[in-house]
Write a structure and sequence with these properties.
By secondary structure, the chain is α/β, with parallel strands linked by helices. It has helices at 39-42, 44-54, 81-91, 121-131, 140-146, 160-168, 198-210, 224-229, 240-252, 277-281, 291-294, 310-314, 317-322, 365-372, 377-381, 394-398, 406-423, 437-443, 448-461, 465-481, 489-497, 501-504; strands at residues 2-11, 14-25, 31-34, 63-69, 103-105, 108-109, 115-116, 135-139, 153-157, 214-218, 268-269, 282-283, 288-289, 299-302, 324-328, 333-337, 341-346, 385-389. It has a 5-stranded parallel sheet with strand order 11-14-17-10-18. Strands 1-2-4-3 form a 4-stranded mixed sheet. The protein has a 3-stranded parallel sheet with strand order 5-8-9, sandwiched between helices.
Length: 506
């Protein structure tokens, strides 16, 4: 007696089709699982057997063999429990095989038959839609998450018995409607809260408009963290595809809330400086996504940048350059998306008060040099804007005119992003920070005066070729904010101004 049930496995952020083949044959009552299963999959035999017995269906008095095909893909997680149980019932003729045609099934079983939620259901639903599968049977805890994907019927179940009755036609469980988009909480934090800091606010606007990486250098209490946390409030809202990609990463990581199946706000991740390189870029025994992937389409904030481990900081090079991170394992090579904006903050010296107008620095020059050299040149080259943040005048904190709100700044940013979208249509880039070398020549051509100015700046500051390209990208964004196609010398000069910390940190 044989049965087939379609399920799925998640590899990275992509799902793949898995056929759960169940065979009942004469012999000893042995439950064996083949097809490169991980330990959690092998343990399913105990959960499946107890759930079937406790639900009154009994367990076959024969040899049970479960094959998870294709066999070359390693199967992990507990989502194969429910497909295995249903496959056994089909093989025993207690459930018609036609009931599972055109359906993908996933779910973990408790010993009493309850169906528990699993990770990665959103990725599985997106894969089912691409493959044209019309129906998805999932734990009710994951049903709202899966219903985000349009064009597929999602059915959520709480119990194995409920699932069986549904497939037998004895129970009518209506499919879930497409999940409504949750509202975005605006106004909790706003750029108007930041007093003074005209240069830093300007740099923040440029970073948001072009998707550029940003470094704030200033004394404790100058407002570096406050500025960084307000960057998501001036970035344009995510498109649906961006929300879906971000939500899939959160689903795979098990961080997607049940009541918010679709991530609406751009992620803001701020790991502690003790974070390891694996936690930052992803990996480990289960090859989970790291902070750079959890910040996909959002902001990764690294406060106290020199305090991070050197190997962790150097692991950021590939994700910053390529927009994805590759994790190689013996069984598979996984690719996670990591298109994020990096915002970093650091003190000018170990004590934090070098150059402070009211406090003196107690650091030895060699200590200052060693502190700043914790950040390598190649990593610094990948940060487009390096901005000093000076302490705010105490009188400006208590009075003065009201600062510009995030909504007003976001309006200019959205207009600049729209210009970029029209210019970069068909290139694969979404904003100026993603421009390729060929695009730079076409979209960032300089007049002779601007070209001569940039050449002199490169020679005097001893900037690298990568810094040269970053200057052009930032200058392109500055022109977009002003609504201009041509780059002026003033645009290049302002962009070079944000690279002066290369020499100071060197």
């Amino acid at each position: 007696m044989h049965a087939n049930v379609t399920s799925g496995a998640v590899l990275g952020v992509e799902a793949c089709r898995i056929e759960v083949e169940v065979d009942l044959s004469p012999g000893m009552m042995v439950f064996s699982t083949v097809g490169l299963p991980a330990s959690a999959v092998c343990e399913a035999r105990t959960r499946v057997k107890s759930a079937l017995v406790n639900c009154g269906y009994g367990f076959p008095r024969s040899r049970v063999t479960v094959n998870l095909a294709p066999a070359h893909i390693r199967k992990e997680g507990t989502g194969f429990d429910l497909p295995m149980a249903l496959g056994i019932l089909v093989a025993e003729k207690k459930l018609p095989a036609e009931a599972l045609e055109g359906a993908v099934v996933t779910g973990e079983l408790a010993l009493d038959g309850r169906v528990r939620g699993v990770r990665g259901v959103l990725a599985l639903a997106a894969h089912a839609r691409r493959m044209g599968v019309p129906r998805l049977i999932v734990p009710r805890a994951n049903a709202t998450e899966a219903s985000v994907v349009e064009g597929i019927e999602v059915v959520g179940v709480d119990h194995l018995a409920e699932c069986v009755e549904l497939l037998l036609g004895h129970l009518d469980v209506p499919p879930l409607p497409v999940a409504a988009e949750p509202t975005v909480d605006e106004g909790a934090i706003d750029l108007r809260d930041v007093r003074g800091q005209a240069v830093a606010r300007r740099a923040l606007e440029i970073a948001a408009a072009g998707g550029h990486n940003l470094l704030f250098l200033g004394s404790p209490g100058a407002g570096k963290t406050m500025l960084a946390r307000r960057l998501p409030t001036i970035v344009p809202p995510m498109a649906f595809e961006e929300r879906l990609e971000t939500s899939i990463v959160a689903s795979v990581a098990g961080l997607l809330p049940a009541d918010r199946p679709l991530v609406m706000e751009r992620p803001f991740r701020a790991p502690h400086h003790s974070v390891s390189g694996v936690a930052l870029t992803g990996g480990g025994p289960a090859a989970r996504p790291g902070e750079v992937s959890l910040a996909h389409h959002g902001v990764l904030f690294l406060d106290e940048l020199p305090e991070f481990r050197r190997d962790a900081l150097e692991s950021l090079r590939q994700p910053l350059e390529d927009g994805h991170v590759v994790i190689a394992r013996a069984q598979a090579t996984l690719t996670y998306p990591s298109r994020f904006m990096l915002v970093a903050a650091m003190n000018p010296c170990p004590c934090g008060y070098l150059g402070h107008p009211r406090r003196s620095c107690s650091c030895h020059p060699q200590a200052v040099h060693a502190y700043r050299n914790r950040i390598s040149g190649p990593l610094l080259d990948r940060i487009d804007l390096q901005v000093p943040v000076d302490p705010v005048d105490p009188r400006a904190l208590r009075g003065g005119p009201a600062e510009e709100a995030s909504a007003a700044v976001r309006g200019r940013v959205e207009a600049a992003r729209q210009r970029q979208a029209e210019r970069l249509s068909g290139t694969g880039a979404r904003c100026n920070a993603h421009l390729r070398p060929a695009d730079l020549k076409r979209h960032c051509a300089l007049a002779p005066e601007a070209d001569a100015f940039l050449t002199r700046a490169m020679e005097r500051l001893d900037l690298s070729a990568r810094a040269h390209d970053r200057i052009l990208k930032v200058a392109r964004t500055i022109a977009d904010l002003d609504g201009r196609d041509a780059l002026r010398t003033a645009d290049v000069a302002e962009a070079v101004q944000y690279r002066q910390l290369d020499r100071r940190l060197g």
